[in-house]
Amino acid sequence: MSYQSRMLGYDVVIIGAGASGLFCALTAARRGLSVAVFDHNAQTGKKLKVTGGGRCNFGNTHVGPENFLCANPHFCVSALSRFGTLTFKEFLEQNGLSSVEQDHGQLFCREGAVSVAELLDRLCRQAGVHFYMDVRIKNIERTEEFRVTYPGGTVPGRNLVVAAGGLAWPQVGSSCFGYGVAETFGMELVEPRPALTPLNFGPGWQMSTLSGIAVPARVSFGSASFEDALLFTHKGLSGPSILQISNYWQPGKPISINLVPNVSPEEVINKARTTKSQVKTILSRLFPARLAASVVPPEMGAKPVAQLRKEEAAWLVKRLTAWEVTPKELAGYKKAEVTAGGVDTKAISSKTMESLAAPNLYFIGEVMDVTGQLGGYNLHWAWASAFAAGQSFKLPG
Ligand SMILES: Cc1cc2nc3c(=O)[nH]c(=O)nc-3n(C[C@H](O)[C@H](O)[C@H](O)COP(=O)(O)OP(=O)(O)OC[C@H]3O[C@@H](n4cnc5c(N)ncnc54)[C@H](O)[C@@H]3O)c2cc1C
């Protein structure tokens, strides 16, 4: 089949053997289509293997369009509605892997991310998918069909799927290749930027000594608001709540942090007014010692709560519940879990992922301008968009 397919061309040629490329290849091959997958990495699913800290947060018990950022907010509705929240969980179970649900509905694979990647690789090979790994693509052109040229030859394909991902985590082979293909075929880009990333505050970051401290917090920017752990770092802030807000933050503007999302500071202050406690004493009950000492200036920390003037108490409440800080910048692609922006969806069919500008050309996964929140949504999008495309290719003849 290898020789014949190469001569006659494949039904589907996919660029990228990551989460979306593998799932699309499997979906199409199981429908009887001949499929080739190219990747410049030597192994398939390299990024997939490090997801969820090696545990693969492959989905979420609640997935809706509101969990995604896209210049065209309704774009992902169709693909999501045809790939249920538990479809991938069931797929894993049918193939001998199991899952566990954790906070915020996050679904992880019990056997780990490597098992998920290996499963997809094995099933693709069993279904007859041909892999062209460790390959540098020299050129993609289109005559009647697509022709992918690499140092070993030229591979023709009736349909071309760009599943080359975004720029996040270049250490596992991320590249701008997919954006280049899109532009070659007349597609527009929404400017890519790092997302789900820590926030840096520049050289004057006054909290650098708190590096390593984590607290629960509610972090807000505009109408976006997330309650989860916040981590102080040498360069700024990180942790799930900060990664979430990084998707929404706009440079030059402050984020607002509630450091006591589960406590009423007014109540704490009023109770302490009847005691001899100092401000720093009540703070040390709320926070780790190093953080408690940094939340307010030393003069206020030393003041007995009973002696706080009304304005001082109001300032303290605001400091605890609406601390405003302005990040200098997003931490960058090396630390980002995903790339926001990408191939503009206005020229892509939301049902099939096919380009409206170039028939038989498809975009799936992170390369497109669809960015999920933290919690399994990006992998869910990889599966859902891959499935939409994989189901839609016309059968030959
Ligand atoms: C550290 C980390 C942890 C993450 N954890 C989670 C998680 O737990 N849950 C979640 O939902 N999301 C997670 N994500 C995000 C998720 O991994 C991605 O959104 C998802 O992998 C995107 O799938 P994709 O197929 O679009 O791209 P990828 O999985 O990145 O695959 C793209 C493929 O294209 C190949 N490629 C790129 N350029 C070329 C080229 N020039 N030639 C040939 N091949 C090329 C790459 O080598 C790669 O194999 C995480 C991301 C990171 C970095």
Architecture per CATH nomenclature, i.e. the level-2 architecture of the largest domain: 3-Layer(bba) Sandwich
Tell me the name of the CATH homologous superfamily of the largest domain.
FAD/NAD(P)-binding domain
- CATH structural class of the largest domain: Alpha Beta
Structural class assignment: alpha+beta
Question: Between the first and last Cα atoms, what is the distance in angstroms?
Answer: 17 Å
Instruction: Name the helicity range.
Output: 25-40%
| CATH fold call of the largest domain | FAD/NAD(P)-binding domain
Number of strands: 21
List keywords for this structure.
FAD/NAD(P)-binding domain; Elongation Factor Tu (Ef-tu), domain 3; 2 domains; seven-stranded mixed beta sheet; seven-stranded antiparallel beta sheet; 21 strands; 24% strand; disordered N terminus
Report what the structure shows.
By secondary structure, the chain is α+β, with helices and mostly antiparallel strands. The chain folds into two domains: 249 residues, FAD/NAD(P)-binding domain; 132 residues, Elongation Factor Tu (Ef-tu), domain 3 (Beta Barrel), CATH 2.40.30. Helix content is 29%, strand content 24%. Strands 1, 2, 7, 8, 9, 10 and 20 form a seven-stranded mixed β-sheet that branches. The protein has a seven-stranded antiparallel β-sheet with strand order 17-16-13-14-15-12-18. Helix 2 runs parallel beside helix 13 and helix 9 packs across helix 10. The N terminus is likely disordered. The protein binds flavin-adenine dinucleotide.
